Amino acid sequence: MGRAPTGRPTSFDIAYLAGVSQPTVSRALRGDKSVSEATRERIQRIARDINYTVDKNASSLRSQRTHTIALLFFEDGTDENLINPFFLAMLGSITRACANHGLDLLISFQRMEDDWHMRYQDAKRADGLILLGYGDYALYSARIEQLVEQGTHFARWGSIRSDRSGATVGSDNLGAGRTAGEHLLACGRRNIAFLGHADEHYPEFAHRYDGLCDALRDAGIAPDPALQFDALTHEDAGYRAASALIASGTPFDAIFAASDLIAIGAMRALAGAGRTIPGDVAVVGFDNIPAASLTTPPLTTIQQDLAGAGECLVETVLAQIEGRDPPERHLPTRLIVRGSSAPA
Amino acid sequence: MGRAPTGRPTSFDIAYLAGVSQPTVSRALRGDKSVSEATRERIQRIARDINYTVDKNASSLRSQRTHTIALLFFEDGTDENLINPFFLAMLGSITRACANHGLDLLISFQRMEDDWHMRYQDAKRADGLILLGYGDYALYSARIEQLVEQGTHFARWGSIRSDRSGATVGSDNLGAGRTAGEHLLACGRRNIAFLGHADEHYPEFAHRYDGLCDALRDAGIAPDPALQFDALTHEDAGYRAASALIASGTPFDAIFAASDLIAIGAMRALAGAGRTIPGDVAVVGFDNIPAASLTTPPLTTIQQDLAGAGECLVETVLAQIEGRDPPERHLPTRLIVRGSSAPA
DNA sequence: CGGCTTCCGGCAACCGGTTGCAAAAATGTT
DNA sequence: AACATTTTTGCAACCGGTTGCCGGAAGCCG
């Protein structure tokens, strides 16, 4: 039955050693129930003995399943070398989730211009995609539509309410914004500024702002558009936005920043302008990046459920692949109170 | 010549449309010079028109080249969810280097116990491996030997002088340690403590310590073993090591921490003990993680050439794969002076 | 004990490119 | 114009598992 083992072991070698046909080896190693317990164990033992590993390429080629998903990051392209720390934390979570599901993880950073929408699924590199990116959704929404059209399995991290096409997994930004607002109100603040884009191009930020506004209205305060300043998620953007806020002369006693990096930049601007934290201005950030606990004072912030996020993204993609029902894609957040916002 | 296009496009479809044989298509798309310019262009145009992508599995299966490398992280397993920020920065650099070389990058976090030494190369998932891990090298040196024996292409990040088997890429830790020492000496410090393991199980840290000792000796100071305290690279470890140092009663006016995380933990301990920085104690860290500039005072540290590191690791693996000469595997470092160490 | 279902395992086709070798075409030589 | 050379292209085998289908063996039943 075939030739004797030679070179790197293949399933044929095992078949030879076990005295069975090669397809039987394939079935046995995958735990196919149409192989008797006895032969399966025999085959598995031999496989272990000769250090056999299934060739992933051959397997994927025939079965059209790679058991791999691709994680595509993309940023606005401004910062070449720095990676947003929040993404990195997310990466850890996704990696672990993949490992738990026995999936390999392919990683790539993308520039907007690339033809990433076909590089992975089409080349059969991956069974599904996870898309991760802050920045202006409008810039790549066209590609996302394309993914949907061609039936690509994917999930993206974003704001749950912008779930028009494709499966979006995200934190409850609206609720988080409300929580932040209520916290600051409870601290006795009334004039709460928001640093971060609030238009539809940046739905995550916008929903955080919406939540803040909801909280304000509930407290009988009309949100003041003069207290909202655009900022992308960079420290410098936070610095500039806070400087603009200060320069505007509009009185304020609190800042809700759309991200910790923005908050950190804002704190720098406040310190430069002689405003004390939290005395003159309470500050709340978003993300709870590692650096948030190291600022002076430590930054109050909102923590997203990162462990849950990775698992949820992976599970969402898997569900599409296997035709199961997708999980709840709505993740809770938690307020972490630190020194930058004084308790009432 | 064959059947008409149907379903997802294959090279056969293109062959049909171009009126050539399928192997010619394969050759043309890879730029094989044995295809005439005219036909190649015709084929490439058709491929673009019908959105064709080479099936990576089929290609890899036959050619035995995946154009993929696997990046294996491993940590001591203590911290489940936090990833060392230094690694994350490295990841960014490696990702970019892979992209530049047209390689895919497979990522995995490993626990020591796993059979990672065969999961990738053997399964033909990747052409080569990059190993990244702080921690006790003794724990996995056996597996590394195994990799060498079976001819696996790999490079690991580590200390250049421990390059006994396999290609090790790393910073010039010895030189960096000397630089740190000389800087502290120039600041007028004489009793410089080192926080970090200094034994052969942690060669990177040990070489940093050795460099410090060299600098001390050059200045006519005998290194005092009582000023060296073990610490792995976690904030808590730094806190504990610094606490032990303070409790030991040995006088000291400077700390050189083997990593920024250790330094940050140490600064916390110093603050808790009422020692001022840099007044009583100057502190120098290592890595220049983002948080380093946010501490109070900002942390003087040593920056490794991360961009170069990723490129060098990738290039080293590629060189092995393609039988070229490996690049220089010795990377320079740079001292970043901040507030935690007072100028002389 | 013949007939029927169930369980196991084999046969052969197949996934979609890549590659060694040889034939055909184009170009050069004398 | 006949022959040597060099380019282009095709043929067929191959990479190493996976899968649909079928047949033999074993188990079940009246």
Can you tag this structure with a few keywords?
alpha/beta; four-stranded parallel beta sheet; elongated; 434 Repressor (Amino-terminal Domain); 41% helix; Rossmann fold; 12 helices; six-stranded parallel beta sheet; 12 strands; homodimer; 344 residues; DNA-binding
Give a description of the structure:
The first copy, chain A, has 344 residues and is of the alpha/beta class. Chain A folds into 3 domains: 44 residues, 434 Repressor (Amino-terminal Domain), CATH 1.10.260; 125 residues, 3-Layer(aba) Sandwich (Rossmann fold); 133 residues, Response regulator (Rossmann fold, 3-Layer(aba) Sandwich), CATH 3.40.50.2300. The first copy, chain A, is built from 12 helices and 12 strands. The first copy, chain A, has a 6-stranded parallel sheet, covered by helices on one side. A 4-stranded parallel sheet of chain A has the order 7-6-8-9, with helices on both faces. In chain A, strand 8, helix 11 and strand 9 form a beta-alpha-beta unit. In chain A, helix 10 packs across helix 11. Chain A is elongated and about 85 Å long. At the A-B interface, helix 4, helix 5 and strand 2 of A face helix 4, helix 5 and strand 2 of B. Strand 2 of chain A pairs antiparallel with strand 2 of chain B. The first copy, chain A, binds a DNA duplex (30 and 30 nucleotides) through helix 2 and helix 4.
